[in-house]
Specification:
The chain has 14 helices and seven strands. The chain is an alpha+beta fold and 288 residues long. The chain binds a DNA duplex (13 and 12 nucleotides) through helix 6, helix 11 and helix 12.
Length: 288
DNA sequence: ATGCAGGCGCGCA
DNA sequence: TGCGCGCCTGCA
């Protein structure tokens, strides 16, 4: 069997797909811009390069399975974002404008385990450092995959992290999040945290309740996990930027508490609140 | 330099 | 239940 063969998948005239919007809107940490403006990233056991050319998007990479299936799932290519954007744009002018700004955003369908650990690390942290920490964890404990002469590393599984100590995490730069990640790994290995159960839970409130039991997972992180890994489009993660943009646009710049914003988002944006959050977040943060 | 960055967990009312 | 505060660390 030929190992590490490059696969290619090309789509044409894809609606709503802009690499910058997708990879720079804060949902993911393992995609990096290349010199030719394409992006290379790693998810599951796949290393993929995404290059936009005129009316084509070219996915090239090393995949254990079929690159087409992997990309359709990960990039949510079966979802019609034109419909989503049309619906959301009718809600109000602010949202319509932010959608124009980030018209090529898609919510990636990310791996639950990686998303869980990544967003525990994200607490009170900034994106460059989050990315650095995740890279160090992967390089130390993940599996190497070679692509175009460069080594990439898979995000380590719970098993691969089973022997890692709190001190090891501290050395990788996790700071006070070291204990949280350690405990989450151990509880996952012992099945006290049951990832499969989380994957199939359809009731949002029960799901959130379960997620909040995990060390290092508070309301914001729980919502990110539901939106980015479990495709729960109705949740509305509130970070400082979202708090800011909602307060500015809808509350005469009087900073509101998360509880008020949560209620507002549910009533105002409805079932697609999570998508609205992404457009508003990207617009506000990018134009800051 | 001191505050801040995509919060959480704790103690206290 | 709802606050306020401290926390690793790197960066401007």
């Amino acid at each position: 069997m030929v190992k590490n063969m490059e696969q290619k998948y090309i789509i044409e005239n894809q609606e709503s797909f802009n690499s910058v919007h997708i990879f720079e809107c804060g949902q993911c940490f393992r995609w990096n811009r290349q010199e030719d403006n394409s992006y290379t990233g790693i998810f599951k056991n796949n290393v993929i390069n995404v290059k936009e050319e005129e009316n084509k998007i070219v996915f090239t990479g090393i995949c254990k399975n079929d690159i087409k299936e992997e990309c359709i799932r990960y990039f949510d290519l079966k979802e019609n974002y034109e419909n989503i954007k049309n619906k959301l744009s009718k809600i109000d002018e602010y949202l319509a404008n932010s959608i124009k700004y980030g018209e090529g955003i898609r919510i990636l369908h990310q791996d639950l385990w990686e998303t869980l650990i990544s967003f525990i690390i994200s607490a009170n942290n900034n994106i460059p450092r989050i990315k650095t920490i995740i890279e160090r964890m992967s390089k130390n404990y993940g599996q190497a995959i070679e692509f175009r002469g460069k080594q990439y590393y898979t995000f380590p599984t719970p098993e691969e992290l089973s022997k890692v100590t709190v001190e090891n995490y501290r050395k990788l730069g996790l700071g006070f999040r070291d204990v949280r990640v350690y405990e989450t790994v151990q509880k996952t290995l012992s099945k006290e945290i049951d990832l499969d159960k989380l994957r199939i839970e359809t009731n949002i409130d029960l799901l959130r309740e379960e997620l909040l039991k995990i060390p290092g997972v508070g309301p914001k992180v729980a919502d990110c996990i539901m939106l980015f890994a479990l495709k729960k489009y109705q949740v509305f993660p509130i970070d400082v930027w979202v708090k800011r943009v909602i307060s500015e646009l809808y509350f005469e710049n009087q900073e509101q508490k998360p509880k008020i914003i949560q209620k507002f988002a549910k009533e105002h944006y409805g079932e697609l609140a999570g998508l609205a959050q992404q457009y508003l977040f990207y617009w506000r943060r990018d134009t800051a």
